UniProtKB/TrEMBL annotation:
The keyword Phosphoprotein is annotated on this UniProt entry: no
One Pfam family named in its UniProt record: 2-ph_phosp
Catalytic activity as recorded in UniProt: (2R)-O-phospho-3-sulfolactate + H2O = (2R)-3-sulfolactate + phosphate
Organism: Carboxylicivirga marina
Family: Belongs to the ComB family.
Protein name: Probable 2-phosphosulfolactate phosphatase
């Protein structure tokens, strides 16, 4: 497997991902929300770039649509929920279409739509993602980052995916940046949360009081679903 890592949503281009398997990661918190919402029975997720786009979709589709997301790590006025994975329990999300817009994660997804296959990952479904991609030939891990800047939490999740692939004896051809991400994970494997807690975006969320989210988002392998883009919505692979 050829495997490369892209450090931010803004670095993704159609040419970089065309024909490849892309795995988008936004640990804090967009892809953690998506994995959790689909694990709890959401019928699909539409990632959009602006709140206006989300309002338009809800106007067209009615009461079966839930609007979720954030700007500056806070809920968007007029939306049903923010960007906390804990908000999307079965009672809230089962059978509903979730329309999301976030600062980084939904941008990374929309920038990756030319991929041969587009998957969604977080620590929550890291093992399921590895089982899904282990036989693929050309993989790009897209770390969403934060406003164009690299983030520790996404890099550590990408490093864990690389590590888990190696544990399954997948022969990897890593780019220089992917090798760096692998090394970062290996050095910090026993203290992922502690290491990530030194990062800027982590501390923004901590300051805003999202401590339960921060605890949840670093729990590995708690979901076994593999969200993928089917051309219209993100849904679980069957």
């Amino acid at each position: 497997m050829k495997l490369e890592v892209i450090g931010t949503a803004q670095q993704v281009s159609a040419d970089l991902v065309k024909g490849k398997t892309v795995v988008v990661i936004d640990v804090l918190r967009a892809t953690s929300v998506m994995v959790s919402a689909l694990n709890n029975g959401a019928k699909g997720i539409i990632p959009v770039l602006s709140p206006d786009d989300a309002f338009d979709i809800k106007k067209e589709n009615g009461t079966d649509v839930i609007l979720g997301g954030e700007r500056h790590a806070e809920p968007i006025e007029g939306f049903d929920y923010g960007n906390s994975p804990l908000s999307y329990n079965k009672e809230v999300i089962a059978g509903k279409l979730l329309v999301m817009t976030t600062t980084n994660g939904t941008l990374a997804i929309n920038n990756s739509l030319s991929a041969k296959e587009l998957l969604i990952a977080s620590f929550a479904n890291d093992k399921a993602i590895v089982n899904e991609i282990k036989n693929h030939k050309d993989v790009v891990l897209v770390c969403s980052g934060n406003n164009g800047l690299y983030t520790l939490e996404d890099a550590l999740c990408a490093g864990r995916i690389i590590h888990l692939l190696q544990e399954q004896s997948v022969e990897l051809e890593l780019t220089d940046f992917a090798l760096t991400i692998e090394s970062l994970y290996e050095i910090n494997a026993t203290k992922l949360h502690e290491t990530a807690s030194k990062g800027y975006h982590y501390n923004v969320l901590k300051t805003k009081g999202y401590l339960k989210d921060l605890e949840y988002c670093f729990r590995s392998g708690i979901c076994d679903n593999v969200p993928h883009w089917n051309g219209q919505v993100i849904e679980n692979k069957s």
